[in-house]
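quick one, three chains, predict together pls
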Amino acid sequence: MSTTIETTGEPITGGDLGWRRYPRLYGRLGLFTLVRELSFRGNFLVKMSVEILWLGIMLAFYETVFARTDLVAGWAKQDYLFFVGCYFALNGMIETLFLENCNEFSNLVRTGDLDFLLLKPIDEQFLITCRRVDWSVAPNVFMGLGVMAMALWNKGWDFDLPRVVLFGLTFACGVAISYAFMLVLTSFSVWLVRNQSLMEMWWLFSSLARFPREIFQRGWAVSLDVVFTYILPILLVVNVPSRVMVKLLEPRMIAFIAIVTIVSLQVSRMFFQRALRSYRSASS
Amino acid sequence: MSYVAEPPRFDLEEPAPAPAPGGDLVPGSLWRKYYRVWRVSLAERMTYRGDFLLGTFLRFLPMITTILLWQAIYEGSGQSSLAGFTYNEMIAYLLLVHISRMFSSMPGLAAGIAREIRDGTLKKYLIQPLDLLGYLIAYRAAHKMTYIVTAAIPYGIIFFLCRGFFDTLPSGPVFLAYLVSLILAFLIGFYFEAAVGMVGFWFLEVTSVLYIVMTLNYFISGQMLPLDLLPPFWVGVLKALPFQYMAYFPAVVFLGKVQGPDLVWGLGIEAFWALFFAVLARVLYARGLKRYGAYGG
Amino acid sequence: MAPIIEVTGLSKTYRVFRKKDGLKGAVQGLFKREYKMVEAVGDVSFTIEPGEFVAFLGPNGAGKTTTLKMLSGLIYPSRGDARVLGFTPWERKDAFRRQFSLVMGQKNQLWWDLPAADSFELHKEIYGIPERQFRETLEELTSLLGVADLTRQAVRELSLGERMKMELIAALLHRPKVLLLDEPTIGLDVVAQVAIQKCLRDYHTRHNVTVLLTSHYMRDIEALCRRVLVITHGKLVYDGELAGIRDTFGQEKILRIEFPAEEPPPDLSPYGQVHGVDGPTVDLRVDRPRVAETLSAVLARYTIVDVSVQDPPLEQLITKVFEQGKATV
């Protein structure tokens, strides 16, 4: 482990350079950020209230629509409710774990503080995307889970362990694919000066994920369906886990989302490295 | 050529002196200021070139999903009209709401006022005979005009592509009423947020409350769906509130859903709310300033 | 013993885009951009032995920071090669990054809203420092800098000087073999400057870490280094003992004489080289041995309001070194 240079100064002996650092480090980061957020209690409560309001608004919209119809794009009332809950939980996951960090990336690029993160002997992607945990949005995940549970309850759903497991897996895939998208968008900050349109783009992409795929599967929109399922697979992210749970199981889709997850994580990582390299050749 | 962007050299006025008391509000210089703000904002938007093009293109996306979603909803319901809105009218409404919001949204207004109160820069309004509200409304008006101009092209394209959803266009008088409702929406939007900002004289953390209110406003002003779709009780409540004028009302005026005496009445109430908030903002400002001075800022 | 840092022909060239004025220029900028090439660092070569304390001297924009960033692996060079600790820096291997530190003045790499102690904990995890060694090093450094009671305060609440001290601690926690410092004392008050200089000196003596320090303050350099590398306009123009520069530079002094404000100042050219006139103040360049006699002559002849004896500004010194072509590399 030591270098070939014979120098004075005690080298670091012992300690751990392996992969176990990452979960430990992440644990600490999570803890520190939680302590810090709780110290600004008022702010924390306000942010949480806003998130609760958002869920309320989404549910109000949902209720209003289903007061006048029984079926939207082939989704019955409770199934659609499950879909809404799934979206909320997934969005909550991404916002809690990654959004703030990716937002900050463009500031890091602009001020040059990104350099310091590049100096550390640890994977830059990890450090940049996982630095902070936004605990004030974390309750969203639970609220989403609550909504999903309520939908299943209303349906009179019988507990089916394989389904739940598959749901968990595909949900994780959805999170991973969203992460990959977010990473690619974040990487653009290296070339684009302002951050504003980055977050707009994320909002727009996530607004695509918010609806059942079926709304695209007619007329001229079919081309969009193809693009956003097979090329930029944002439509998979909420659709597949929800379908797994409340509709017929489609093994092909499950396999597909698994493959897409692996590919998108790889591609996004490569793109991110490329962006960093570009940053480094341009910085002064 | 230089390596740093300089302000446009084409100026209508000689180098401006420090603002004379009340000088900012003399109409002539106000227009010159608008012009300068406009030119600088336009240039500013275009210097971030990648940003500008991408942002412009990406404004299209949400409308597409909205159109498709409502198509699915209408089909699922088997009806051609929901709460008096046909599918075309629904889409037209959701497009028009964007325009209402262009006029009535005031990003950062309340927060800015609260910030100035908090860090003491408001002191200058105690010393100099400058009018904060007057200055702010002029600035916002200029900014709005800039924004409308820069957004005109992408929005023009969207509306042209969606012209099929507009079965009828308003007649002359109705269109005039529509314009009036938009200007009143601007005033309501401005004075409402200004009033909230003024609360910062008494409660420092007013921006948090604002955040919550504006989130709620998204729904109750009718930006997500026409208020008529809600259960009758809620329709009554929300239409009694001023928030509907920030999005819902101008849109339904354009669509011809408010006719004759109802239209006049509606505009009257809208004007009332504008006046109400204008007075409220003024009163809060005067009281707050006095309190501010008493506490030494 | 092999050199710990070896730099050969290192160069870095940038493309700088030109922005045109006004509205028309901005629209043109949407379609076509002109640029020119700027050479930030041009063909720099030097070696540094383990345990040396070397200064990088030069005016602003000379290329010091760029060179340092290349040695840290942050920037790819356009040409040339460098070896630090046997590694190529821009390959950024973990083993390499574990063994050096970069500290930049007025820049913060600690977590802004966490207490410094938390940042150090995270540091420990990132660098894989064993617990015991971590505690020892932390104690050593906090007592050396006298900030032991400040570590539990949020970094954002500390003064600039205290923050720099924390930065330094973070940089030294993992006992790096190479320490790169970019203007570490810029913007600090004298007390903090001295404290940091002292810490660096003590630490260097104790652990024999190799230090490369950039600055444009002579005072930092004088306090800490014997060997100096002078860079201007991206080129290395001097590599040698500090004393060598002092000889060059110590030969002249600038007498700044302020005359009463009512009349224009007299012509002092008989007494020395008039360096500049600013209102009632005259700057006069005089050889060091003749300062005393010049001063007494002027004082005898004229009434003056104020006088000070100064060193010529650094840029002048550099230019002179450059002109005299004193490259020893």
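Residues 1-14 of chain A have pLDDT under 50 and may be disordered.
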